[in-house]
Structure formats: C-alpha cells, structure tokens
Design goal:
The complex is a heterodimer of chains A (338) and B (542). Chain A has three domains: 35 residues; 28 residues, no CATH class; 236 residues, MetI-like (MetI-like fold, Orthogonal Bundle). In chain A, 73% of the residues lie in helices and 2% in strands. Chain A has 14 helices and two strands; from the N terminus they run ααββαααααααααααα. With 338 residues, chain A is an all-alpha fold. A two-stranded antiparallel ribbon of chain A has the order 1-2. Chain B has 542 residues and is of the alpha/beta class. The longest helix of chain B has 26 residues. In chain B, a hairpin with a 5-residue loop joins strand 4 and strand 5. Chain B contains 21 helices and 19 strands. Helices cover 38% and strands 15% of the residues of chain B. Chain B has two domains: 183 residues, D-Maltodextrin-Binding Protein, domain 2, CATH 3.40.190; 298 residues, D-Maltodextrin-Binding Protein, domain 2 (3-Layer(aba) Sandwich), CATH 3.40.190. Chains A and B meet through helix 2, helix 4 and helix 6 of A and helix 1, helix 3, helix 4, helix 18 and strand 19 of B.
C-alpha cells in the first residue's frame, strides 16, 4: 500500500512538472514585448478582461434603464392614434388627466389610501418585527436554524406558488380550523370588502420577512463581540444590548430600508396580481397595481402615455421624499463607526 | 497571460450568449424536414385544444406532400399582451387566436392583407355534396362581416363563436325530476314519463321542454333544487369573467339583439323606461345605455342568487379556477358531495373538461361518467315577470374578439392564405365541430359522422344556433373608434362598474362585480346598484 501511494504521488508530481515545462516553453517562445510580469492589474490583458466583464451589463443598463426611462418621458407627452397606429404629440394632457384623476377618480383615491396604509404597516409593524426576529436569530435562540428557513421560504419559492398556497390555506383551511373554535365568519377573507385588503397586507408583511431578516442578521453579526462582552461585564441585559448597542450599530442598514421603502409606496403591488390577476377588486388597488393593470391588459398600448405620465408624477413626488428621508435619517440618526 | 486572455474571451462569450438567450430569432426546437416548405401555425391552446388543428395538418399535408405544417400550441405566447410585442419578430405565419384587438394590431401593421383570399369565390363542396362557388366572406355570419372590414380590406377573420349561458346537467335534472309538468300550474314532474311543459319556444318535443320560461318559474326551480339538497350554481372565484357574463346573458335576453347591440355600436335608438319617445344613441350619450332595463333584470337575478345562496361555498374563493368549478360540477353527483346543477360557461368548457371526465370514467370504472356519455345543455334564459322582455330568445355570444390572421412578418403568406382557405372549407368547418364540440361563425352543415361523434351539449348548442327563432348577439365587439381607443374603460368596466355605498355607510365606492358587491353588502339592492352604474359613467368624456 505504501508503495502504491508513493507511486501515485510520483505520477502526480511528474504530471505537474510536465505542465510547468509546457508553460515555460510557451512563455519562452513569445516575443519580448509580451513577456510581462505576472499579476499586473494595469496590463492590457487585465483591461480587456474588465471591459469584457462590464460590456454587456453596461449595455443592458443603457438600454433597459437609460433608454427606457427617456422613452417613457417622451411617451408621456404623446397619445396613441388608432388610425395611423403611431404615437403623436399631445402636450401635457396626460399629466393633467392623471392629476385630475388623482383627486377625483374614486379608484385612485382608494389606491392612495391603500398605498399609504401598506407603507405605514410595513414601516411600523413589518420593519420592527423583522428587526426583532433578526435579533432572535442572531442570538441563536433554540431552533433558530429552523426559523430561519421557515421565514426565508417565501423568498425562495416562486411568489405565484406562495400566493396560491396562501389562498388555499386562507380560503379552505383556515375557516375549517377556526370553526373548531366556533369562529364562523372567516369565509372569503380574500374577497370580502371588509377583510380583503387586511388579508393582503398580512400576506405582504409575512412574505417580505426573508430578505430583511437575512440582511439585518448579517448586519448584526458584524457588531463587535468585544462591545457585547464588555457590556455583559457591566451587567448588560439582552434588551439593553439590543437597544443600546445592536440597534444603533445596524442603523445604516435600517436607513437603507427606510429610504427604499419611500419609493416602494408608489410601486408596490402588494402581491395583488398574484392573487387576482388583472381583476382585483377596486377597493384593494394600490398605485403600483393600478399602473400595472393599465399597461398589461389587452394590447393596452393606448394607455402607455397615461401610465408614463403617472409614473413621472410619482417619481417627482418620490424622489424628493426619498432624499429628504435620507437626509433626516443621516442627520438625526446615530453616527456609528466600527 | 494566455490563460487570462482565454478566460476573458470565454467569459465574454458566456455573458454575451446569456444576453441573447431570451431572443426568439432561432428555431424553437421544432424538428423540420428540410426537403419541404414549412408553414408555422400559432394556436391559442385554450378550451378548443389542438386536436382539430392536428387533423387539419394531417389532411393538408396529405394533399400537399411538399408542405410541412408545424403546429405550436400555447396559451401565454398567444395572448394579446404577449403578441403586441412578439408578433413582429415571431416565426409563426398564421395564428388561430382566442382574443385579439383586431383594429389595434392592424393599425400597428402586424397583420397581412388577406382581402384576396377572404373575398375570392372558390368551388367548395358542402357536406350534402352540393358544389358552391362561395367565398369565406359569404360563409361568414352576416352580423359580423363589416367588423372585419377596414378601409374595404380584410386583415383577419373570426375564429370561433360560443354561446355563453348557464349550462345544466341533464342527467341530474332527469334523476331529480327538475322539469316543469305540463298543465300542473308550476309543479314539477314526478316521473320521467310525465309530460313536460313546452318551454319558451312553445313547441313540445324540443330541447327546452320542461325548462323555466319566466323568472318566477326559474326562482321556483332554484328553490326546489335547494330543498332537494342540490346547489344551483358553481362558479370560479378566481375569474370574475364567468359571473359577470352570466349576468350579461340575462341582460342580453331581456333587451333582445338590436337593443343589446347598441352597447357595441353606440348607434341607434332606444326607448328608456318611462320615456314616451326613443332616444337617439350616439357616442356622446351612449352612457345612457347603463339605464337599459335588462341590466336591472340581471342585477335582480344576482341579488336573488346571493340572498338565497344558490352557489357553492367555493364559488367566491380566489383559489377556485374555472377548471375547478367545472370539476366541482362534474364530481358533485358522486357520493359524499352535494350535487351541483349548473355552471356559467361557454361552448369550449366540455372540451376543456374532457380529460377530467375521461379520468372519472376510468377511476370509477363506469362509462356513464365519461365525456360524450354525460349530458349537458344550455339553460334558456327565462323571461322577466314584468312581461317586458324581448319576445324572441336571445343568447349572448363569446368570441367577438377571436381571430384568424396572417402575420405581416410571414415569408409564406401565400401558403398561409391557402391554409386559411383550407381551414374555412366546409369539410374543415365540420372537422372543427367534430373535434372541439364548438361552432365556427360561418354557415355550414355538420356531417352524420360529426353528428354521431359530438356530445349532447354540442348538439344542443348547434340546435340553438340554427334555430330561426333565436337571436345571437356578441358581447364586447369594438365597433367604433371610441371603444377601440379606450379598451380599458369599455372592457369589464362598461358591463357592471357602479358607485355604491358600502356596508355600514360612508362615501360611495366603485365596484366592478355585482355578485361580490351583493355578497359584501346585504342591504345593497339591485336598484341601488343599477342607479350607481349611471352615476359611475356620468362623467362621460367621449
């Protein structure tokens, strides 16, 4: 056995030597100008490599972000002419129409209320819950691995599958379970006017747990253990550790979610398309869903200019709000360095 | 360094290839015979399936050995919101589509001009072996010919038409004796040998014998069903489409063909309830059509349906698809289930449920559950008790936006036109009905072979469509530019959007679906909903 091992090692060494000699020969045969030192990050080859890596992502960014947004701005000043099949200049009428609808159309007024409600629930309930759950997982409570998987499942599985499972449970399973406890008014929670949007909100908060928990847990894991140990010596309780050490130190991460959440106010569909397709009841509409169904219905190319104008108005509202939120959070939030 | 360059090149190629992986410029994996000319057919794989098209392919190829017909059947790929971007670059030469905004696609230049093949008279042999010089246009149902004409040209032809109405289980009706007895003052039969009433057509021995003729009779039948432990309706909660169209079928029958069609054309006159003279309807005042009494009648039916719970508990679950609603009906007669009498469906439903019925027959080891053995039929819409329903029977049709068209992008246009002409021949129209159980919107006969092979339901639909005392009217046809330019507003919003006060009071809210609104608010009456529809549309901008 020893001899076999020795023989194998010897063979491997020979193979390695053969490849080395091959590289030396290739290197020696190259003209002098190409014989550059290894590891040069400023070499032409390296630049070519970087350019190759960046070329397609950059191209996609230019097309699908820059060009699309410029096109959207141009589209907002046009209208679709059925006869010619072309877009013609309309001026600011799409903006006027949307601003008028924003204050007069009962569907959009309801969408305003729903979007704000969704945002506030996410901010005041969803975010704190995410932070608390993340803290528990960070502190490695019993079965933390199991909880991590369960909480992250909605992010791994397709949203259509999750929404279907949720629908089946809420509509078929839950009434039966609650019936055992003599609670009999739990039928049709997703379609009843008094419960539909509340159910959607619950689903949205529940299904958003995974990503935030991963990010918050990761941020918490970077908190220096020396601080925690020092605090424990001084009698730091779990709550005080969370409130005085962990929370301030992860505040930059919280800031990111708060700032991004402001834009989400105008874009979130709250999973309505997963639940209802394009036929959600009007009383569940959000801004994001309203715009989505405007353009995805039957060849609704005629609606593109109106939807573009609406999107630009939302951007003009969301952009300063986002910057203000960022400014205030950075100014008044805890300053941390570690 | 060489290795770095090779690595860079490979990475570059991988990224590049991954970027173009989504493009459909290359073949989609279809196996071609390079010695033949290919014709690629895009088929919306919905309720009508593809079997009829495979038959068409086999026949066409046998007569044209140098042609290979490739059938691509899919749902998502051939929906309108996919085709609006994909059609210009798709490989398909000809499409058979369930729904397409014909005028929008034509204005975009996506559809080839097929005027020549549509108007050309060719020799065609009818099923009864009569030779005719006839064009596709001549065969087309007269009421829709002008719809497909744009500036005296044709860019598409209709694909299908289908009655949309309540469909009842004939076997259940016979088992539970759910027919009205003749001369019994509204009582039901007590045995199958009892003579049934003569139905809406007033003739004994026809398909509507024993079925309710008035709304009072209809309500009585529903209540008798409930007493006998039968649930009248199963709906799809996932898709409001079916419930909304059920109500629209009541509206259509009340109004009759001409009055109902005003909702498509916005041109004509209508005598509103309480007026002494008819109002001229045009684009500027078409919102007044929300006051059609047929709508009130339909809403009253909806209110009664909810009040009396004439529906299964799953009917409003968003998790219940239209397929599951069909299955709920189909298996309801098995032990352990509460029988369901009816669903609201179109002609395609039986073909859609075919596999389920076949599986039932196998699993239960009894052919009586099989497709083609089980019997279903269209429930005639009862006339309103106020005596003001149109005297003729009117059935609402689906399929007004169905389309057969040739892609402007096709490089086999002449071949596609030939195939289009072939699929609209008398022979192939018969084959279509034989394999789908549905009917195309052309004038044709069915062969004895087809008659033997089609189901009871298809025969019933055929009888209705050929009945001279029946009018057929399309829902959702965009006959004018206002409707075409505003297809969101005039989609389902035109049917039933209303402003109503929610349960518990407060500001009025907009609702789109009457049955859901009635379910949410027990104090919402049909009249309130009806009045709210005019209120919703009063800011008419056209």
């Amino acid at each position: 056995m020893e001899k076999l091992v020795k023989a194998a090692n010897g063979l491997i060494a020979k193979i390695k030597l053969w490849f080395y000699n091959l590289r030396v020969k290739i290197y020696q045969k190259r003209p002098k100008s190409q014989k550059k030192s290894k590891g040069s990050i400023n070499g032409r080859g390296a630049k070519f490599f970087y350019a190759a890596i960046l070329f397609f992502p950059l191209l996609q960014f230019l097309i699908f972000y820059i060009f699309v947004n410029i096109n959207s701005i141009l589209l907002s000043f046009q209208q679709f002419d059925m006869v010619s099949g072309k877009f013609t200049f309309l001026g600011a009428d799409n903006f006027k129409a949307f601003l008028n609808d924003l204050v007069n159309d009962p569907i959009i007024i309801k969408a305003t209320f729903n979007s704000l409600t969704l945002y506030l629930v996410g901010l005041l309930i969803g975010l704190p819950l995410n932070i608390i759950f993340s803290y528990f997982l960070y502190k490695k409570i019993p079965l933390h691995g199991f909880y991590r998987i369960i909480l992250f499942l909605p992010q791994i599985i397709s949203s259509m599958v999750i929404s279907l499972m949720f629908k089946f449970f809420v509509e078929r399973g839950l009434p039966g379970i609650l019936n055992i406890f003599n609670i009999t008014n739990a039928n049709n929670l997703i379609t009843r006017a008094d419960t539909a949007f509340k159910t959607i909100i619950f689903y949205t908060v529940w299904s958003s747990f995974g990503t935030q928990i991963i990010i918050f847990s990761s941020a918490m894991s970077r908190v220096p253990q020396t601080l925690i140990e020092a605090g424990k010596i001084d009698g730091l309780t779990a709550f005080k550790e969370f409130w005085h050490i962990t929370l301030p130190l992860i505040f930059p991460t919280i800031t990111t979610f708060l700032v991004v959440g402001v834009a989400g106010l105008f874009t979130s569909q709250a999973g309505l398309y997963d639940f209802f397709g394009s036929q959600a009841p009007y009383h569940t509409y959000t801004y994001g869903y309203f715009l989505f169904v405007k353009v995805i219905g039957d060849a609704n190319v005629v609606n593109y200019p109106y939807a573009s104008a609406a999107g630009i108005i939302f951007t003009m509202i969301a952009a300063p709000l986002t910057l203000i939120a960022k400014f205030l959070l950075e100014k008044f939030g805890p300053t941390v360095e570690y | 360094m060489i290795l770095k360059k090779i690595f860079a090149l490979v990475t570059f190629l991988l990224i590049g290839l991954s970027s173009i992986a989504g493009c459909t410029l290359t073949q989609r994996g279809d196996v071609y015979d390079p010695s033949k000319t290919q014709l690629i057919v895009g088929n919306y794989f919905g309720g009508f399936g593809e079997e009829w098209l495979l038959q068409a392919k086999a026949l066409y190829e046998s007569r044209n050995p140098d042609i290979e017909v490739i059938i691509r059947s899919d749902k998502g790929d051939y929906e309108e919101n996919t085709l609006i971007t994909s059609m210009p670059t798709n490989e398909e030469d000809i499409y058979f589509l369930s729904s397409l905004s014909y005028h929008i696609f034509q204005s975009q230049g996506y559809l080839a001009d097929i005027t020549d093949v549509v108007t050309k008279k060719v020799t065609d042999t009818t099923i009864s072996q009569e030779q005719k010089e006839i064009s596709i246009l001549d065969k087309m149902d007269e009421q829709i010919r002008d719809y497909y004409k744009i500036n005296n040209k044709y860019y598409g032809i209709p694909f299908t038409k289908s009655i949309f109405a309540p469909v009842y289980d004939v076997d259940l009706f016979e088992e539970k004796l759910l027919y009205f007895k003749d001369g019994a003052n509204g009582s039901l039969i007590t045995s199958l040998s009892d003579k049934k009433t003569n139905g809406l057509d007033g003739v004994y021995g026809t398909y509507d014998d024993g079925l309710p003729t008035t709304y009072i009779e209809f309500k009585r039948l529903m209540n008798v069903m409930v007493q006998k432990g039968i649930t009248p309706f199963a709906f799809s909660g996932m898709n409001q489409y079916y419930r909304m169209r059920l109500l629209a079928s009541f509206w259509a029958d009340y109004e009759g063909k001409d009055n109902f069609n005003l909702n498509n054309t916005f041109a004509g006159e209508y005598l509103f309830e309480g007026d002494s003279a008819p109002t001229q309807i045009n684009v500027s005042n078409a919102y007044l059509l929300q006051k059609q009494e047929g709508k009130r009648y339909a809403l009253q039916f909806g209110r009664d349906l909810i009040n009396s719970s004439w529906y299964t508990t799953n009917s409003f679950d968003t998790s219940q698809s239209h397929i599951e609603a069909q299955q709920e009906l189909l298996k309801s007669r098995l032990g352990g289930f509460k029988p369901v009498a009816m669903i609201a469906e179109g002609a395609w439903w039986e073909n859609e449920a075919k596999t389920f019925m076949q599986d039932m027959a196998i699993e239960l080891n009894n052919q009586k559950w099989n497709y083609g053995i089980r019997r279903f039929a269209v429930m005639p819409i009862p006339k309103a008790d106020n005596g003001k329903s149109n005297s003729r029977k009117t059935y609402m049709l689906n399929g007004g936006k169905s389309l057969v068209c040739i892609s402007q992008n096709s490089d086999q246009k002449e071949l596609a036109k030939d195939f289009l002409e072939f699929t609209t021949s008398y022979e192939m129209l018969d084959v279509f009905t034989r394999y789908t159980g549905a009917i195309r919107p052309y004038q044709y006969e069915i062969s004895s072979e087809t008659e033997q092979n089609i189901t009871y339901f298809t025969k019933n639909s055929w009888q209705i469509m050929k009945d001279e005392n029946v009018d057929l009217v399309y829902l959702d046809m965009d006959w004018n530019d206002v409707k075409r330019n505003n297809n969101t507003y005039f989609g389902t919003g035109w049917l039933w959007n209303s402003k109503v006060t929610p349960q518990g009071g407060g500001n009025k809210v907009v609702v789109a679906e009457p049955l859901l609104a009635f379910k949410d608010n027990s104090s919402l009456t049909a009249d309130m909903y009806f009045n709210g529809m005019l209120e919703y549309h009063k800011d008419w901008k056209f």
